[in-house]
Amino acid sequence: xxxxxxxxxxxxxxxxxxxxxxxxxxxxxxxxxxxxxxxxxxxxxxxxxxxxxxxxxxxxxxxxxxxxxxxxxxxxxxxxxxxxxxxxxxxxxxxxxxxxxxxxxxxxxxxxxxxxxxxxxxxxxxxxxxxxxxxxxxxxxxxxxxxxxxxxxxxxxxxxxxxxxxxxxxxxxxxxxxxxxxxxxxxxxxxxxxxxxxxxxxxxxxxxxxxxxxxxxxxxxxxxxxxxxxxxx
Length: 233
Prior knowledge:
Elements: H1 2-10, H2 16-22, H3 25-66, H4 72-82, H5 87-104, H6 111-134, H7 137-169, H8 174-232
């Protein structure tokens, strides 16, 4: 009996490729979708690593420039060479608005009103910088949320096929049940393979972006205090 079962199971391959080929069309579509989702997630992960690293370097570089003791016009000229990224973008937006206000010639304008407008300009630029960093994070969040359920759907479908095979063959030996269970568990594994890294890196990048945004918010507070002294003088 054991030899017969082994011979019957030998007719079915249990490598990943064999399980994919032996799966039904629905389970194949589930597997392909999960593999594609996993590849897309890893592409987003590598892109976010580069984005966060570039933003962190830009903020560090501008912090050194800002606190180097240079005058605001000198900092503005050097910041324009570095590019509008991170705190430099906030600074340049505020300085350009300040210069436009001076060029317009509005002596009746109160310093408090100008300061409030400059702070709002920097807040808007902060939101723009944060949105740029958060772009495509939704892909990781969505994959982490739905990939296990898609894998579970493939699992349920594979188990249904196993029961159908039992009903058709009227035989409950392992050779009849194993192929359907194998493809079912393979679908589950693919779902977890896509979801676990997506959740891990989504949490990591959300934390990193939150910290970078906090650093830029602190810069707004510090720069607003400097502008307040400048306008008061």
